[in-house]
Description:
alpha/beta; Rossmann fold
Amino acid sequence: MLNWLYNTFWATWIRKVCTVLVVLAVVVPLAFLIPGKIGEPDYCAEGVERIGGECIGVNGSGYDFGTREITQVSEAIRDENKRVAEQSADSVTVAMMLPLQPKLAAERKQLRSELQGAYLAQYRANRTENKPLLRLVLANPGDAYAQQKKVVDRLAAMADSGSDNLRAVTGFNLSLGATKEAIARLTGELRIPVLASRVSADEIANPDDPHGRLPFPGLARIIPTNRQQADALANFHGGLKDGETVLVKDTRPHDIYVESLAKAFSRPEPGPPGPKDQEFTSPGITDQGDTGNDFTIIGHNICASDAKVVYFAGRPVHLRLFALKLAEVPCHGKKYTIVSGSGAATLDRYMGESDWQKLGGGSGGSTITVQYAAPAHPDSWDAALRRWEKERQASTGKKPEEKDRPAYLTEPREQLRELRRLIDRQAAGDIGPVELGDSRTMLVHDGVQTIAAAVFLANAQSAGPVVPTRKRVADQWPRLEAAYRVKGTSGWICLTNGGNAYDKPVSVVQLEPRTRRVAFVGLGWPAKKPQPADCVVPSATG
């Protein structure tokens, strides 16, 4: 019996040892064959690391960050970057920093429009006689810019790299606390020039006080701030009394766009005080939560007041819902105009068929007009010129000649026509359907065009290398006025000493339920009148 137990023990032990040896023989070679050891980064693509389910980093090699809507334009950027590398050893890199993996379909289309604008400007700039050539890279800071610190670290390394020559960062499509932190570090600690084309919060802007300190040294902006947009809207409407208006505002923290817009809409108006501010708190930029219930109650309270114009300080998702809820309130046929800022520039993309029908009001006609300050609109220049000619002929009694037409209208119109020609003849390659109506392609195009102008001017004025320093590029921002104004598709870009676009017009637009599109209404000027001849910036603005 003992002998049997002894033999059984050794047989079992030998089988276990053999099993372990076989497993080791299989596993150890696999450890060398399978890439990525435990604890090492998981890369989505070159320069892009997977963090918390997102692909964070910088890439200019055609990676689309898993967003199919931008695949074609990402590949077009890759091809243009290859052409730049083949043609010149001295090139400059421009980074587009914005969330590249949006969840909503409307936001993915917005993203495509922005990247198309950047690519089209890169394409145009690289086919002029100016040097150096521009290379474009995409930088994803994650949802709501939450991973911006990692991306800024990477951009800092690229700015110091002799092969990358990063000379400007642009993009920045959301005015958030994290966005402000990224821009502050880029311009302050790292001294990397930044061109903000879409963020409109006043808190992300330098003051134009010539004796003040610049909180963002090296920052330029081509979109009017929320305060300037509010001024332009007020000047456009003219004569509104306080009792005729009411402010509906989102109180969600850390969204400096809605905070800034609410402050801008709180500008003093004549007459007895109107109804108090109507507040709501949304759960997120694209999350409705229970705001629909809040809007129904707010709508009934507004109905009981004398207000006929509603200033809305909130994001597009909530603006859409508020407009629909206000349309449902039975208010004895009372008509309202809801007015918002440039963040609503793609509001129509959030609208469904039933939404348009509800805003249309059926046979009784619409009781709600949704209007906002768009940074640009493709119909603006032709419509504004027709209006100018009509007014001029009425005052002089004769039709104005071509030479009499104001350059602040004719030059942007020609730039827009050139952009359309480029898109129509497919000279820029297949980048997907281009929709100019949302203003994003036009504005981002103008932003990269402004960067190119600063880089080319810095190079032309320097006796040194072809690639100018970062400081040299940033120093050119205030030079871009008068003779060196940027003739953008969105209007003249004439920068103050604080880097702000002086009296940049906004396109006042509104939703048209009948045509299911955004219609141009008119131009609004922050300074009450158009930009001066040749865009010479007055001394009072820095």
